Structure prediction request, 262 residues.
Amino acid sequence: MNRWRTLSVLVFLSLLLIACQPATPAETPAGETQATGPEAGGTPSLPLEGQPPLSKDISLDPANAEDEDSWLVNSYLYEGLVRLDGETAVPALALSWMVSDDGLDYIFYLRPGVVFHDGTPFNADAVLANFNRWFDPSDPLRGTGAYSGWKSVFLGFKGELQEDDSPVSPFDGIEKVDELTVLIHLNRPAPYFLASLAQPYFAMVSPTALANAGDSYGVRGGQVAGTGPYSVGEWSDTRLTLQPNASYWGEVPVTGLEFPLE
Prediction:
């Protein structure tokens, strides 16, 4: 990855102020077309008493969830690097970030002491595993999902080229700087990149759970593990219960949640 000029970028970025670019992913995504999908970021609202049952076919794989019922449940289980406060990207699993003058290099400083529901540490390796899963069709953690959320926001996958042989996606790759720092490189400026990362599709999933579950990740009976304030309790044909995550880095919920399914 010498073309990414890691060392020189780190020295240069150390002189910059932390940058948080306000944007709304529903208006303009990281690429050049309008994004689609659920509202990104924010604190999930509690389910209303007497709300209609959710679909028993929900997907708890955020990268491949495509319906409102799945997005609702996933908002309790998972978190991304950033979330949105109004139209501004603010810290979530990333405490802060820096952006190069040319808008191509983003360094994210990760929140320390975070663990996934299955006990796997959240660190740079976990972030790389998730981004490579989303971007690279040959990644061993990829599974059989369509990753339509990634494509709608980042336009394409690794190896896909336009007619002029330029990459379809503005995302150019990610590398580990140290245990709690990652460098993301773009091949062209994407002014709304930060806000796009708040889309629920880009929530972090435990690499251990992905490796153990294989193609069954996110479906009933498979292993599910995020970093959110709730973890999965019981998941049957008729109900889904979420239990407080006692290891949550933020405020731990007092009670669990229950969703009827049909």
Remarks:
- The radius of gyration is 18 Å.
- The chain is about 20% helix and 20% strand.
